[in-house]
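Retry 2 of 3 after timeout on previous attempt. Resubmitting structure tokens to design endpoint.
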């Protein structure tokens, strides 16, 4: 219990005075208001002059207060801190406070529509430390707003940094370190199950070709946890290459990764006949790389992980067509293969009725189907 200055009002004015004090940033929320007979005592930081204009009857006295229990719900904490910025008449924006966000390192990443409605403009401009306070309450140091992943070949990220100087983040997932500039490189938290699935495969003694390596989300787990021998990583975005080199070094596997910079249409043909497994992790479709990817598999066969966005109702047909297409590509390359294993992994919903799927398919020159 601590003795503090308190504004004391008749009970029926408690709520209105609480609002007044909150807006004036005079309310000391670290302590809990206390009812004394028919009155409410509200803890304040200091005796505030602007209160004198209120029509609510009040007096200021010293009162003993108990500490408020700490709010452990981050959504409530965020709401509480933003409430302090909202002037009278704009209370409806409280409903627009984002209810979800991602945390990458010390960066809080809000969804793309967060704080964009017109009413926020003045609130944010006038509250100079708006994003600082948000970062502080969420125990972060930077704040960003997600933008849709660009519809370009390199699937560049368009995160807008709202607080902070740099978008470089370092995250640890499934025992592995990744680092990337979130303003420049895409990040999909929805792919976590697929990243972990890649890490659970046994790739001992295998040579992997990753046709769309990005920052190594799929090939690093295969290398480190799956115990692959070597990864050939094809990537054309210099920012992703920078991130991949950083991760290779940080995870102590630089010697087991060869980065082939540039368009995989030019780099895959240099890797003919060397791979046991090829990753084709590009959305919405990796189809343009299937043919050169198949030619990187060893003469006796190997496995592909083909990512694609497919309408739910077409998944079965797409699976059959894809396997047939791959067998035909192999044949045109002088390889008479059989499909020996297939598995379809549904990773996430990409859009209504459209799924991000991964088709695992294995081919062999001998027909011993499993
Ligand atoms: C879905 S993202 C990366 C997925 C990756 N597994 C990761 O770490 O997140 C696809 C990547 O493929 C790269 N890419 C797209 N087209 C390419 C091409 N023709 N040749 C090489 N890389 C390409 C993009 O720059 C991007 O980094």
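Retry 2 succeeded. Sequence:
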């Amino acid at each position: 219990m601590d003795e503090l200055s308190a504004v004391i009002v008749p009970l029926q004015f408690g709520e209105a005075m609480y609002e007044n004090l909150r807006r004036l940033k005079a309310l000391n929320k670290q302590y809990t208001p206390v009812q004394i007979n028919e009155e409410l005592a509200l803890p304040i930081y200091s005796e505030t002059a602007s209160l004198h204009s209120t029509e609510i009857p009040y007096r200021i006295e010293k009162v003993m207060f108990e500490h408020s229990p700490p709010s452990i719900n981050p959504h409530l904490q965020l709401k509480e801190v933003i409430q302090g910025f909202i002037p009278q008449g704009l209370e409806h924006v409280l409903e627009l406070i984002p209810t979800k966000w991602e945390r990458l390192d010390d960066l809080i990443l809000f969804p793309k529509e967060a704080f964009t409605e017109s009413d926020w403009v003045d609130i944010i401009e006038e509250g100079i430390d708006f994003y600082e306070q948000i970062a502080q309450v969420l125990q972060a140091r930077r704040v960003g707003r997600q933008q849709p992943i660009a519809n370009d070949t390199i699937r560049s990220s368009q995160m807008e940094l709202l607080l902070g100087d740099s978008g470089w983040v370092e995250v640890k997932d499934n025992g592995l370190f990744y680092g990337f500039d979130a303003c420049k490189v895409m990040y999909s938290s929805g792919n976590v199950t697929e990243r972990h699935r890649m890490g659970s495969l046994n790739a001992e003694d295998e040579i992997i070709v990753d046709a769309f390596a990005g920052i190594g989300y799929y090939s690093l787990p295969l290398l480190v946890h799956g115990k692959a021998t070597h990864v050939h990583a094809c990537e054309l975005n210099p920012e992703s290459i920078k991130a991949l080199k950083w991760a290779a070094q940080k995870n102590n596997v630089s010697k087991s990764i060869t980065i082939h910079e540039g368009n995989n249409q030019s780099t895959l043909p240099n890797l003919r006949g060397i791979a046991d497994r090829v990753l084709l992790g590009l959305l919405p479709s990796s189809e343009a790389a299937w043919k050169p990817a198949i030619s990187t598999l060893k003469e006796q066969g190997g496995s592909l992980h083909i990512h694609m966005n497919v309408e739910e109702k077409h998944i079965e047909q797409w699976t059959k067509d894809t396997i047939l297409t791959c067998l035909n590509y192999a044949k045109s390359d002088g390889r008479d293969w059989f499909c020996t294993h297939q598995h379809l992994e549904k990773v996430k919903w990409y859009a209504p009725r459209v799924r991000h799927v991964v088709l695992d398919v294995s081919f062999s020159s001998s027909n011993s189907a499993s």
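Attempt log closed. The mean pLDDT is 90.
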